[in-house]
Amino acid sequence: MADKFDVIVIGAGPGGYVAAIRAAQLGLKTACVEKWVNREGKTVHGGTCLNVGCIPSKSLLETSHKYVEARDEYGDLGISIGDVSMDIEKMMARKDKVVSQLTGGISGLFKANGVTSLEGAGKLLKDKQVEVTGQDGESQTYQADNIIIATGSVPVEIPPAPMTEDLIVDSAGALEFQEVPKRLGVIGAGVIGLELGSVWRRLGSEVTMLEALDTFLPVVDEQISKETYKQLTKQGLDIKLGARVTGSEVRDSEVVVKYTDSEGEQEQTFDKLIVCVGRRPYTDSLLGDDTGVELDERGFIQVDDTCQTGAPGVYAIGDVVRGPMLAHKGSEEGVMVADIIHGEKAEMNYEAIPSVIYTAPEVAWVGRSEQQAQEDGFEVKTGVFPFSASGRAMANNATEGMVKVVTDASTDRVIGVHIIGQHAGELIAEAVIAMEFGSSAEDLALTCFAHPTLSEAVHEAALAVDGHAIHMANRKKKS
Ligand code: FAD
Ligand code: AMP
């Protein structure tokens, strides 16, 4: 038996690496097992988020957005820059550099905090032992008092559209195109599909999105999702709702996709097809016999509110357990579990986890939508403020969208905030803090916001809950 640790974390994505660093900071002897290897065969930390998720997608979204601004919008501002062109190779090289800086950064943080890095595939054995098998096939077994499973998720594959080398790809493949596909198909108009569709649309692809559901973005407040649909279709994303993909065929260098919609069987041909139909928890080859760790019917590791599995001292966090598949959710769970292992009473507020779609405009929300609040039996009161009435939004040439505050009318407590607009992903942070501190709409309304900022729209939406927005004709006068 090799070394014994206080904590062994399996998986170094944003759930696992944060848990490992926190545990080490608290003085616990910590190791983190990771099996991800890059093209050069070197172990890399950071998981889906840093390697093929949040970070590379945001790098491409930022570049493609700047390109569209320069091409289509600078003229309106009086800036002439002549012909604008894109260098895809350079865009990809920058993206790769950002990724390698950040993944290298995690390895550096492990060293700085004294986290032992174990390279290879981890397997949980009974009695809190972890077997680590390296790329050379050699195995070593380690003992720990506590184990944190953070093995994340992988893209779902569907039989009608099996992956190919380079024509039918998942989200990771869509971050690697070397040229702009003329006709791009995207199966699934969820968050990841919309972001990747936006990148390639901005760079010139004709993008068709095939979404099986009749409702666009059902997780988002209806008023906001309608506005999002309007804005994204205006940019040229052809979003077909109620379109279920039933088959695909690769012909030469094209993909023919078959789908059904309200009018029957349809067919469309693409140069590339991205499959973005969701992600599944990843536990392949993870669990040995008699570990006491159970999976639910959808394959998620079963945990309680504190991420404890059925086996005492074995925890699971991040995408591999219930809850939204978001990097920051996994990281917060990692901090909570490390604190619990250290003997503190820690908990997480699952009601205040923000979500962001990094399209342009961005869409961000926290808490309940108006419809969810009604379903949950709240007497709902809302306040909406459009960015078209915001001085800063006008100065920024970004007047699309709105802020919507949802409150429990009986207490005035803020139970949801929903934003579509420029920098919505940054603006939502103040709503998260307000909700974390149990703020009422009046608390927000009585808070001083800097002028001129986009955040004033949050202030105005809170004022609008009671019909008192300053820069808008209100629904009702003060009684
Ligand atoms: P992961 O990041 O999946 O990490 C799990 C790690 O465990 C991996 O490194 C894996 O190699 C390792 N592992 C698995 N099994 C073993 C084993 N047996 N032994 C050793 N190691 C193992 N989320 C956001 O919050 N914001 C975004 O903007 C965002 N954008 C995204 C864009 C895309 C294109 C994608 C695909 C995802 C995006 N996500 C985003 C989701 C986010 O990436 C995930 O929620 C997050 O990475 C989950 O973190 P995790 O630590 O649970 O798992
Ligand atoms: P998300 O879970 O947010 O990543 O979104 C994935 C989307 O893919 C969901 O909205 C699903 O309805 C959609 N989807 C799943 N299977 C199919 C299919 N065969 N054809 C079209 N859309 C699909």
Automatic annotation (TrEMBL):
PROSITE patterns: PYRIDINE_REDOX_1. Its main location: cytoplasm. Pfam families: Pyr_redox_2 (PF07992), Pyr_redox_dim (PF02852). Gene3D superfamilies: 3.30.390.30, FAD/NAD(P)-binding domain. Its cofactor is FAD. InterPro entries: Class-I_Pyr_Nuc-Dis_Oxidored, FAD/NAD-bd_sf, FAD/NAD-binding_dom, FAD/NAD-linked_Rdtase_dimer_sf, Lipoamide_DH, Pyr_nuc-diS_OxRdtase, Pyr_nucl-diS_OxRdtase_dimer, Pyr_OxRdtase_I_AS. Keywords: Cytoplasm, Disulfide bond, FAD, Flavoprotein, NAD, Nucleotide-binding, Oxidoreductase, Redox-active center. The active site is at residue 451. It catalyses: N(6)-[(R)-dihydrolipoyl]-L-lysyl-[protein] + NAD(+) = N(6)-[(R)-lipoyl]-L-lysyl-[protein] + NADH + H(+). Residues 5-334 form the FAD/NAD(P)-binding domain. Binds 1 FAD per subunit. This is Dihydrolipoyl dehydrogenase. It comes from Kushneria sinocarnis.
